[in-house]
Design brief:
80% of the residues lie in helices and 2% in strands. By secondary structure, it is mostly helical. It has a domain of 90 residues.
């Protein structure tokens, strides 16, 4: 798309006062307005002329023209983008069933090979995932077995300790009972001996 030629300013406008000219819509007219404003502002600073409402009007016209040119540029850009998209859509429709890839058209056989390779890679990933899951489960089972063995060992040790305590208590009771029995026998013998001595 070629850029539009700047509009030539008609000869009659050169003789007109700049404030009477139409709003600038070209770069040349915009530059003339800017030059006029700069010269007037410089003269006002130098105090060679007084500030007039004409300068304010010219500034307004220049700003308005700048907005118009800016909006025109945006619109032209949008139109260009829409035209490009329409041309791309037209090209896509023209190509029909061809599948456009990064490096050109892909053939059916190549596409099948790529799909097969992708499926194999997916299967490998799934197998690896399953293997990892099985390894994790196996590790968890081993950890659970170790915990169970430790718990069983602790329980056996506690049972053995309890049995030892019970055995010790039973032995102590038996020993005490033996002492009581021996004491009773001794007392019986002493009573018998005493009864024999009295009868004599």
């Amino acid at each position: 798309m070629s850029t539009p030629e700047p509009e030539a300013i008609p000869e009659e406008y050169h003789s007109l006062d700049i404030s009477l000219r139409p709003t600038p819509t070209t770069l040349i007219a915009y530059k003339q307005f800017s030059s006029y404003i700069n010269n007037r502002l410089a003269s006002i600073i130098d105090k060679t002329i007084e500030l007039s409402p004409t300068v304010a009007r010219v500034i307004e016209k220049r700003d308005k023209g700048a907005k118009i040119m800016l909006l025109n540029g945006v619109l032209i850009g949008e139109e260009l983008q829409e035209r490009k998209e329409a041309e791309m859509e037209k090209l896509r429709r023209k190509r029909g069933n061809k599948k456009v890839q990064q490096y050109g058209t892909i053939k059916v056989g190549d596409a099948r090979l790529k799909i097969m390779a992708r499926d194999e890679a997916t299967d490998r990933r799934i197998e690896l995932y399953n293997l990892r899951q099985e390894e994790k489960e196996q590790e968890q089972r081993e950890i659970d077995d170790r915990k169970e063995r430790r718990l069983r060992k602790r329980q056996e040790m506690k049972q053995a300790k309890d049995k030892r305590i019970v055995d010790k208590a039973t032995k102590a009771e038996a020993k005490e009972a033996e002492i009581v029995r021996k004491r009773a026998i001794k007392e019986a013998k002493a009573a018998t001996k005493l009864a024999t001595n009295k009868s004599n």
